[in-house]
Specification:
This protein has about 800 residues and is an alpha/beta fold. About 45% of the residues lie in helices and about 15% in strands. The chain is elongated, with a radius of gyration of 39 Å.
Length: about 800
């Protein structure tokens, strides 16, 4: 039987020939090499054919075995060769020292041939197994590295594919959505409007699908991060419900939002992503519910440990819809899984919404689950953790500020209010909101119960009745009978989709009435009840914050705009929007044409598509900024990037390359007008050079009046303006701190407050300075922000002086 390890090389190191001869005789089946001293042993070990094992004597002249072993183990070429000390030294300290230096064994003289042979073979077998294992590890590591590179490449390819597909879909969607919006603003028949609204709704659904796929891709790639900023819980949830109000009431569903009164006013977290989860769950509930109610309820979670700076909330969305079979209640949170998974699906959807919700809730340190009974409805629950914020400060949510001081809570305490609504939950919700503010509430389910409440003995006078419009229409005669002789006022709960003449006619049928839109918003309801009782002054008619969908022609000074866009449909959309308000637009369908036009004539602004044939938008911007092919005075012309790329990295890249604004496709007409608004200074164009840094030169003869007329009662408007000036001073101080810290997000929020509030007060010049400041803060142009800050402060002082002049 042959030896399993034939011809392995063994180096025998000993200064005594007798010992060498003995070891050579013991190991006849190995290739034996001989060294009589340490220097010779090292040369053999470090040669091209090193030994597989070394038998090393300790006591040798000039260089002993310990020294040889230390050198062998310190050299990367020889450190893995097993060393066995073969010596007459039998002290424990000698053996310990040898093993500490890296030897694998220690054999003392005189030799036992069988022990020497077996130990040598054992260590050679171990070395072979170790070498094989290391080889396998290296191979596996190479395989894993190759697989990792392949996965990364596949992930990059997927991301690029998704980004490119998103771009390719968004590009035609831009023309579809934009042109549909423009058509809806023209005179159309009811049938035409219905068709256009179908196109509009389908386009938005497609856009939601694209956004969902991109969100999922970012989550899976680990590139998804949540913000942590202060926000107004009540305002955000009111906004979420309000955005779905039309969809709910078009199906005759009640949409309710109940928020426990003991929750903090301001939370710290990511309001956008919280809104995304809530809107998705509410949207699903509306979609799968044919009749009845959908209710959002928010309470403190039972597991929440009382802390001064953190809270855990429990959200639930309950519907009276089709329900979910028990077998599908877990799988619906998996990607591309539908509640209605049949081949004849009745309900649309991507199958991604709940998957993304699960990811987002998990990132909020919460969990999501469902309770459902098929045919009777579902309740989706999720928990989430938030910090507790302060209402004041640099990063306060604009929603909180917009309704600050307008909740009407202080004006309703002590009122006696009758709530008349067929919805049990609706009545209870109104009752909760009013009772929290000290209102005495009585509930009635219909006109008959209302009659009994108003006419009953000992009921006491009701100053206000909150009445649902459905009851008002269905039981008009009974209502009139019940209200006969009653001297109180009515708050009519009016669905969001009841607008125009239809809504006005309904409200006109009730004397002493105030309308309050559904889905109910806490502060709007309190304000409406206070107004109906005469305790709160109604807001001025012209005090709405909404910006008109399209600016009236002639309301702004025309700009000369170079539109660099290669697709005809998108050219037509931009031309239709811009020329409609008086801007002069020249179109270039590629980069070469754009450079030629810039060299020949001046423009106030460039709207730059990023995906162009030939010279792309990024390269074209670089050439303009560096002065290649354009006169020096036109290098700093404002450039707004207009692109269908949806990634945040694209926006950052555009701004880093020297662009002055960013607009994603598809865009709405108003969004295009808003993105160019900062470049229309003082109502006039910015001709020629538009500096990116330093002081701006005012345009002579184009200054708007300090205060424009605002509709409403003069005294009310004046009070509103005085409050604006008073709070504006503190806002300026906050803004100054944000600028010092280069807090772009906070500075934009402060600018947004000035922009929106100045609109109500008719302070057009303040509003324009705020728009310009906010856009420069977003781009990080802090030198320009400083200049606009000074101008903003000056304009606020002018408003104050104008008010003092009016008072004198």
């Amino acid at each position: 039987m042959s030896d399993p390890l034939p011809k392995k090389r063994v180096l025998i190191v000993d200064d005594q020939r007798t010992n060498i001869d003995i070891l050579v005789g013991i190991l006849p089946d190995f290739e034996r090499r001989i060294a009589l001293n340490g220097q010779q042993a090292l040369r053999i070990a470090q040669s091209q054919s090193p030994p597989d094992l070394v038998l090393l004597d300790i006591m040798m002249p000039e260089m002993n075995g310990y020294q040889v072993c230390e050198i062998l183990k310190g050299d990367p070429r020889t450190r893995d060769i097993p060393v066995i000390f073969v010596t007459a030294r039998k002290e424990v300290a000698d053996e310990t020292k040898g093993l500490e230096l890296g030897a694998v064994d220690y054999i003392t003289k005189p030799f036992n041939p069988e022990i020497v042979r077996r130990r040598v073979m054992n260590h050679l077998e171990l070395k072979e197994k170790r070498d094989n294992l290391e080889f396998l590890v290296r191979e596996r590591t190479r395989d894993l590295e190759a697989a990792k590179l392949a996965a990364e490449e596949a992930n990059r390819a997927k991301s690029e594919f998704l980004a490119n597909m998103s771009h390719e879909i968004r590009t035609p969607m831009n023309a579809i959505i934009g042109m549909t919006d423009l058509l809806l603003e023209t005179g159309t028949t009811r049938e035409q409007r219905e068709y256009l609204e179908i196109v509009q709704g389908s386009s938005r659904s497609l856009l939601e699908l694209i956004n969902s796929i991109l969100d999922l891709s970012k989550i899976e790639a680990g590139r998804f991060r949540l913000e942590k900023i202060p926000f107004d819980l009540v305002g955000r949830m009111d906004e979420a419900c309000g955005s779905l109000g039309v969809r709910a009431y078009e199906k005759d569903l009640e949409l309710l939002c109940g928020i426990a009164p003991d929750l903090p006013e301001t939370l710290v977290g990511d309001p956008l992503r919280l809104n995304q989860v809530v809107v998705n769950l509410l949207g699903n509930a509306i979609k799968f519910t044919a009749s009845g109610e959908v209710m959002l309820r928010i309470i403190r979670d039972e597991s929440d440990a009382s802390q001064s700076d953190a809270i855990r909330l429990h959200f639930s969305v309950e519907d009276t819809g089709i329900g979910i079979h028990p077998d599908r209640q877990e799988s619906i949170f998996e990607r591309f899984t539908q509640v209605d998974g049949s081949t004849t699906r009745k309900f649309g959807g991507t199958g991604l919404g709940l998957t993304i919700c699960r990811y987002l809730v998990s990132m909020m340190d919460g969990r999501i689950w469902v309770e459902s009974q098929e045919g009777k409805g579902s309740t989706f629950h999720f928990t989430a953790a938030f910090g507790i914020g302060q209402r004041c400060g640099a990063a306060t949510d604009p929603l909180l500020e917009q309704r600050a001081g307008r909740d009407g809570g202080e004006g309703v305490s002590g009122l006696r209010v009758l709530v008349v609504w067929g919805s049990v939950r609706g009545r209870k919700l109104v009752g909760e909101i009013l009772r929290e503010k000290g209102v005495v509430v009585t509930e009635a389910a219909d006109a008959r119960e209302m009659f009994l409440a108003l006419k009953g003995e000992g009921a006491g006078p009701f100053e206000v009745a909150v009445v649902d419009q459905a009851l008002l229409e269905a039981e008009a005669s009974l209502f009139a009978e019940a209200a006969a002789g009653w001297e109180g006022s009515v708050v009519v709960l009016l669905p969001t989709h009841r607008r125009g003449e239809e809504a006005e006619a309904l409200c006109q049928s009730v004397s002493r009435r105030v309308c309050c839109r559904k889905p109910l918003k806490r502060f709007a309801l309190l304000s409406a009840v206070g107004q109906a009782a005469g305790r709160i002054a109604p807001p001025p008619e012209g005090g709405k914050r909404a910006v008109p969908a399209v600016v009236n022609p002639g309301s702004v000074q025309a700009l000369s705009i170079l539109l660099v866009e290669d697709l005809v449909n998108n050219q037509k959309l931009a031309l239709a929007v811009l020329e409609r308000v008086g801007h002069r637009v020249v179109v270039a369908d590629d980069g070469e044409v754009a450079l030629k036009l810039l060299g020949e004539s001046g423009f106030d602004l460039i709207l730059m598509d990023m995906q162009l044939p030939g010279i792309g938008g990024h390269e074209l911007t670089r050439r303009i900024r560096e002065g290649h092919g354009v006169p020096p005075e036109r290098r700093s012309i404002p450039i707004v990037a207009v692109t269908a790329h949806a990634m945040e990295s694209e926006r950052r890249a555009c701004l880093a390359e020297g662009m002055n604004g960013f607009l994603r496709k598809p865009y709405r007409p108003q969004e295009l007008l808003e993105v160019i608004a900062p470049f229309v200074g003082g109502g006039g164009p910015l001709r020629g050079e538009h500096p990116l840094r330093g002081e701006r030169k005012p345009l002579p003869g184009r200054e708007a009046p300090v205060l424009k007329p605002v509709e409403g009662e003069a005294a009310s408007v004046r009070r509103q303006r005085e409050l604006f000036v008073a709070e504006g001073g503190e806002r300026l101080r906050t803004l100054l701190r944000q600028m010092a810290a280069e807090d772009a997000r906070g500075a934009r929020r402060s600018a947004e407050w000035f922009k929106s509030t100045a609109l109500e007060c008719g302070a057009a010049r303040v509003r324009m300075k705020a728009i310009l400041l906010g856009s420069r803060a977003e781009m990080g142009n802090w030198e320009e922000v400083q200049g606009f800050y000074r101008e903003l402060a000056e304009e606020l002082e002018k408003v104050k002086a104008a008010l003092q002049g009016e008072g004198g």
